[in-house]
Amino acid sequence: METRSEQKLKIEDVLAQKGVYVGPTVGISMLPMLKNRRDTIVVKPKTERLKRLDVALYKRGDAYVLHRVLQPIDGGYIIRGDNCYSDEKVPENAVFGVLTEFFRKDKHYYCTDEKYIRYAEKRLKTYKRRRFFVLFKAKCVAAIKKVVKPFRKK
Amino acid sequence: MKIKSGLILRSVGGENVVVPVGEMSKKFHGMITLNETGAFLWKFFAEDHTQEEAVAALLAEYDVSEEIAQKDVAKFVEAISQGFAE
Question: A134 lies in which domain range?
């Protein structure tokens, strides 16, 4: 019987040794697809140039980031989280993994599933509308705070 | 003995991997890979059971000798005693 456990692992090391990393999700940047500390991701090493809609794993400083490729560009990618409202330019050599499967609650999805691809396309298609509403909401909240502030008791 | 909550077994490409969720993912940053027997015992110990009950369950499920079953269960129990059981 084999039971192996690696504490404090580095994902890039696991990918190099095992060819796959299975672990929890942390953060809200890929909502609604991946929920913080509830869902499970399956990442494989990047073996070829990623395509639009692929979900890339890369490092920003010491932090691991798993965000969607919007557009491959010369020497890298334009990347953005499904729940983010700004794009990021990531160099090719910073990306070392790609999401291939995930478990959302207990449901298992493959990134080649038609239903998943439809979701990813829709997420990109509705970006401008979502961004408008998020900014609009933020401006409304700021305006309300400005009006309410003078009436607040100290 | 029972496996702590917050550790779930996932089957990925024929491999059995234990992944932490919720609060447990803040404490445990590793990846546990189990073979078929390990996965069977993991599921068995999801409920509170004794080591003897696990040996009996293993004997009922697999065509193995009692000696091997005891050895496997002891090894598994030793492994999960390192912070994965309550």
Answer: 11-151
Q: Which residue among B26, B29, B35 places its CB closest to the CB of A7?
A: B29
| Count of the separate structural domains present in chain A | 1
Confirm whether A15 is domain-assigned: yes
A41 and A20 in contact (C-beta within 8 Å)? no
pTM of the model as a whole: 0.88
Q: Which domain holds residue B45?
A: 7-80
pLDDT in tens, chain A (154 residues): 333 444 467 999 999 999 999 999 999 999 999 999 999 999 999 999 999 999 999 999 889 999 999 999 999 999 999 999 999 999 999 999 999 999 999 899 999 999 999 999 999 999 999 999 999 999 999 999 888 877 776 6
Does residue A34 lie within any of the structural domains?
Answer: yes
Instruction: Identify the CA nearest to A117 among candidates A49, A45, A33, A29.
Output: A33
Domain total for chain B? 1
Cross-chain residue pair A1–B37, CB shorter than 8 Å: yes
Task: Give ipTM to 2 decimals.
Answer: 0.89
The alpha helices in B13-81, defined as continuous H runs, are: 24-27, 36-44, 51-61, 66-80
Contact assessment for residue A21 and residue A14, using Cβ atoms and an 8 Å cutoff: yes
Q: Does B37 map to a domain?
A: yes
The minimal CB distance from A1 to the residues B15, B22, B38 is found for B38
A6 in a domain, yes or no? no
Give the residue ranges of chain B where pLDDT is below 70. Answer: none
pLDDT digits (tens, 9 = 90+) for B53-77: 999 999 999 999 999 999 999 999 9
Whether B85 is covered by a domain: the verdict is no
Nearest CA in chain A to B76: A3
Enumerate the residues of chain A whose CB falls inside 8 A of the CB of residue B72: 1
Query: ω into residue A32 within 30 of 0, thus cis?
Result: yes
CA of B61 vs chain A CAs: smallest distance (Å): 15
